[in-house]
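Sample entry was shown:

___
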Amino acid sequence: MSGAPFPEAGLPGDRRDDPYRVFRPRFGLVSAWATGVVVVGACVVVGVLATGPLGTSWVNRLSLAAFALFAAWLLWRLGGVHAVPSRAGLRVRNVIYTRELEWAQVVSVRFGSGDPWVRLDLADGSTLAVMGIQRADGARGDLESRRLAALVQAHGEAREGHDR
């Protein structure tokens, strides 16, 4: 794409200055793994060491195992939130679902001072959270939101810019 504000790069995400590198929260994966180790570890300890009529019941141990599995799945999803830009569009993976967008579908990028993560205004009138760019990342989150807004401007038919 000639005249684009970004240099043509090799593979998406292969360079630090590559505008197509993956958007992901700074400590999301580390926090999810640490919490998962604590929660699943505590479930294992309680399941093994619990005594008495409630502690030795197979129903209680099964429900504890089910809780540990659900917690591990949820933390795996929380740790895996990201957005992958490409020249064709943006793939957003949030906690529950993954959505593929073409750049032309994105009207604007919003990251207001009270928003926990970036929101995209879409051409169909809906909004989409991009949990891969978070307010908790401070200045880095703000820079990442600007990079996403620049990609939308460069590739999409955005009618509005980056709202602050």
Notes: Strands lie at 82-85, 89-93, 98-102, 106-110, 117-122, 127-134, 162-163. Residues 1-14, 158-164 have pLDDT under 50 and may be disordered. The chain has four helices and seven strands. Helices lie at 28-49, 52-55, 58-79, 139-155.
